Amino acid sequence: MSTARSTPLHDEHLALGASMTEFGGWMMPLRYGSDIAEHTAVRSAAGLFDLSHMGEIEVSGPGAGAALDHALVGWLSTLEVGRARYSMIAQEDGAVVDDLVVYRTADETFLVVANAGNAEVVLAALEERVVGFDAQVTFTSPEVALVAVQGPRAAEILLSLTAAEHQDAVSSLKYYAITPATVAGTDLLVARTGYTGEDGFELFVENGAAVALWRALLVAGEPLGLVPAGLSARDSLRLEAGMPLYGHELDLTTTPFEAGLGRVVRLDKTDADGAPVDFVGRAALEARKSSEPARVLVGLKALGRRPARAGYPVVVDASKLDLVIGTVTSGAPSPTLGYPVALAYVTPEYSAAGTRLAVDVRGRGEAVEVVETPFYRRPRG
C-alpha cells in the first residue's frame, strides 16, 4: 500500500480524469489527457499546475539573512524585500543537497522553497545551520498549497481574478519577485518564478482555499485556452527551457560548477563587518572553481528521431559504443521544436557546441550534436 501523501487538490485531479503517479513522496497528476496537448497549451496559451508537493520553509528573525548566508551558497542577506533568488544548499564537500528558490517576504522573513523529495532534508539542514544566529526555522509547507499558471496568457488570466487594489502590483511584478495580493477573493502570495520557459505565476495559498482558487482559475482560463497540466508536461517544458531537475542534473555527486551553475555560488559574500562568510561547502567549492571539472553539463540535439533517455551512455561515435564519454541525465522528444533533446554530462573535451557525438539508445548509436541551452526561448514582445 502506498504511503504517498495527497495534496489538497487530489480530488480535483481525479474529477478531471488525471492519471496519478507517485513523485517525491506525493501522489501527483501525471497527465489529464494528452502530454503533448498540455505541453502545447502552456506554450501557446496557459497551463494550470498543482505544485503543492513542494516544500515551504520560513526562516525569520533579525539574523535570518546572515543565517541563510551561512547555510546556502548564495548571498541572501542582500536580497531586497519582494524579490527572489535561485540558490542551492550544499554539503561540506560542495555537492548539491538541493536547489532552491528563496523569497524575501519581509525585512526579517524569508521563504525557502525546496523540492518535494528533499523538503525534510533541507528543513533539518537549515535547523542545524541556523544555530548561533538570531533566527528561527518554521516548516510551513503542511499548511500551504501552491498553484502555478504558466504560459503567454497567464497574466491575463490571473489579472481577471485579481482584486482592483492589487492589479498594479501583480501586473508590474518582475521576474523572480513576489507580492501579496487578493485573487478570487483569497489573500495569498503571488510569485513570478516559472519552471517552464514561459511567463507565469505561482500562488502560495492556505490549504483551505486551494480548491476554490483552482476552480476559479480553470473557469477564468478556459475561454483563453488554459488547461490543467501534469508532471509529464512540466518535465518536457522544463527540459526545453534547459532547467535542471534534482535527481537528474543535480545530486549528491554534483557541484554547481559541473552543472554550469557556478554563478549561484557567491564566494565573495561578506558579513555585516565586511569579513568573508564561511558558508557550508565554501572551501570545497573554492577549490573546485579553480580546477577543471571532470564533467560538464551540455545540451544535445538529436539528429535522428529516437530520443535519448536518462541513464543512456554518451559515446564518441555511433560505431564505437564502448567509447563512453558521458551519461544522459534527461531526454525526451521536444513537442515545440519537433526533434528530441537531452541534457547530459560529458568530459570537457567533448563539451563545445557543434561537437558531433552519439548516444547508445538500446544498443544502437544515435547521432547527436552538442548545442547551447536553453533549447527553447520564448518569443519576446
Question: What do these coordinates show?
Answer:
The protein is an alpha+beta fold and 381 residues long. The chain is 20% helix and 34% strand. The strands form four sheets. A six-stranded mixed β-sheet has the order 11-12-13-10-4-14, sandwiched between helices. It has a six-stranded antiparallel beta barrel with strand order 15-18-17-16-19-20. The chain has a five-stranded antiparallel β-sheet with strand order 6-7-8-5-9, covered by helices on one side. Strand 11 and strand 12 (186-191) form a beta hairpin. Helix 2 packs across helix 8. The model has no long low-confidence stretch (mean pLDDT 97).
- Main beta sheet, described? 6 strands, mixed
Supply the CATH superfamily name of the domain at 5-53 and 143-240: Probable tRNA modification gtpase trme, domain 1
Q: Which stretches are poorly predicted, pLDDT < 50 over at least 5 residues?
A: none
Query: CATH top level of the domain at 5-53 and 143-240?
Result: Alpha Beta
What's the N-to-C terminus distance?
50 Å
Give me the side-by-side strand order of the main sheet: 11-12-13-10-4-14
Question: Helix and strand string, N-terminal first?
Answer: EHEEHEEHEEEHEEHHEEEHEHHEEEEEE
CATH fold naming of the domain at 5-53 and 143-240: Gyrase A, domain 2
H/I helix tally: 9
State the CATH architecture of the domain at 5-53 and 143-240.
2-Layer Sandwich
Please report which band the strand proportion falls in: under 5%, 5-15%, 15-25%, 25-35%, 35-45% or over 45%: 25-35%
Function: The glycine cleavage system catalyzes the degradation of glycine.
Protein name: Aminomethyltransferase
EC number: 2.1.2.10
InterPro entries: GcvT, GcvT/YgfZ/DmdA, GcvT/YgfZ_C, GcvT_bac, GcvT_C, GCVT_N, TrmE/GcvT-like
